[in-house]
Fold this protein.
Amino acid sequence: MRNTFRLIWRILTAPFRLIAWIVRAIWRWIANTTAEVREFFTQEVEDAPVAEALNKAIDHPTEILAHLDALRKHLLRSVLALAITTAFSFTFFQQILAVLSRPLKGGMESLVAIEVTEPIGTVMRVSLLTGFAMAFPYIALEIWLFIAPGLSRRSRIYGLLAIPVATLFFIGGMAFAYFFMLPTALPFLLNFMGIHTIPRPSSYVKFVTSLMFWIGVAFEFPLVIFLMAKLGWVKAKMLAQQWRLAIVIIAVAAALITPTVDPVNMSLVMLPMIVLYFFSVFLAWIAQR
């Protein structure tokens, strides 16, 4: 009889014991995660010269394999996140194409495809750019998680705080290209020398997405310079003295980014990049103060 009552009691209390086990498991996970995060942000790495680190890596090649395995995992998660956001963007490609073609006079109806596979390639390119913009914070976090163990405690904190700021800068650069550069460049390109041009979806979307992507990347430059100056890697005085070389490099980069060879569109890319460079010098001066 006692065993029967004990069995009934265990059956009646099974749901409560299950809930208690789940709560304890969640609490242990939170406690362990909190301890790991606290240790991650408080411990300091051993500062070793580059030559000594290289010799250590040569003597113990298995450590390099561990880093490569960690890099593989970070890249795999980043690609998986990009695939998810790209697939999600694919379901809204019509709305995204309508927004991208809004700077044209006739909108999406003014685009004329002349190849069978051209619309598919256009949709995939738009979905990939939108998916990358959506996955950018997570990809930046994975990059930070890979390099953070080799950074100092202060550098880890700065790197983590820079992720949301970098996301805003990237989106801001894409918005600048869309709202300011495209309305200026398209009328000139589509009516150059009085020749009316009917844009194709592939060429138009390639032009727009390339411009928006690279301007978004260029807008990350001030943040990178600020962090490098904060960590003492660059000086504002050095950047200010090398402004001529910087303009030459910016001109070359603008020529590579711009899909056309006309000076008007090249100037549209160069001018904001030059402004960003001098803004970076100012941010480097603030970081040193």
Q: What stands out?
A: DSSP finds eleven helices and no strands in the chain.
